[in-house]
Design brief:
The structure is a single chain. By secondary structure, the chain is mainly β. It has 1 helix and 15 strands; from the N terminus they run H-E-E-E-E-E-E-E-E-E-E-E-E-E-E-E. The radius of gyration is 19 Å and the shape is globular. It starts with 6 loop residues before the first helix and ends in a 16-residue tail after the last strand. The relative contact order is 0.12.
Length: 221
């Protein structure tokens, strides 16, 4: 870079370079039924289709008739259920640099199913986490589902035993083990298990929520 550039132009160049680095895709939309929106941190909104890139900072939104399957560059995936908001808070992955792995995902409302990729299987145990308004989920090589119910938003949904879903976070683990925690405590949930987080500490429960097929099958590409 030339050394005699004006300071204002130099600053603009550095900002542009930083923006380009920040915009490195975290993954792409592998399958989609309905409409998927991505809201950037500056408020810009774009409509995504199959093959569209997704980036750190994106808040992804489905409506009541839409589902989406997201494929990440480390091989992981997230299936976003209908009427959901999901944010990619942070995503750093380089194939040969496990020490730099970092993925923070946030379920704002609605539901998802996630299968962790290399970030959740190699290197630091804390490299991958999934967050919700009332809990943080620590993950190590797992397949799990979350459903966040707020102000009756899960009306009509029922547990395996037929009970209506209460407001709060409902957790299901299909493979591996996760730790669900908040300021009030934490619990470990293994394959086949369920947990629930209301206004207090997380609880392991025997009658949990198992989402029916969401309309978009997991895609391996």
């Amino acid at each position: 870079m030339p050394k005699n550039l004006p300071a204002s132009l130099l600053a603009a160049v550095w900002l542009a370079m930083a923006g380009a680095a920040h915009a490195t895709p975290a993954g792409h939309v592998a399958a989609l039924s309905g409409t998927l929106l991505a809201v950037k941190q500056d408020g810009r909104t774009r409509v995504l289709g199959v093959g569209s890139s997704i980036e750190a900072g994106d808040t992804l939104m489905t409506d009541s008739a839409s589902t989406a399957h997201l494929r990440f560059s480390d091989g992981g995936s997230v299936q976003v259920r209908a009427d959901s908001q999901f944010r990619i808070e942070r995503y750093d992955f380089a194939q040969g640099e496990p020490g730099g792995d970092s993925a923070i995902m946030v379920l704002i409302r609605g539901g998802l199913r996630a299968v962790t990729g290399l970030i959740g299987k190699r290197g630091r145990a804390a490299a991958y986490s999934m967050r919700a308004p009332n809990a943080t989920i620590g993950i190590r090589g797992t397949d799990f589902g979350l459903q966040q119910c707020v102000a009756g938003s899960c009306a009509g949904k029922k547990t395996v035993g037929g009970a209506p879903l209460a407001d709060g976070l409902h957790v299901e683990v299909s493979d591996g083990t996760i730790v669900v925690g908040n300021d009030a405590g934490s619990v470990e949930v293994s394959a086949g298990g369920f947990a629930y987080v209301g206004t207090g500490a997380p609880l392991v429960v025997s009658d949990g929520y198992r989402a029916p097929g969401s309309g978009v099958e997991c895609v391996i590409d």
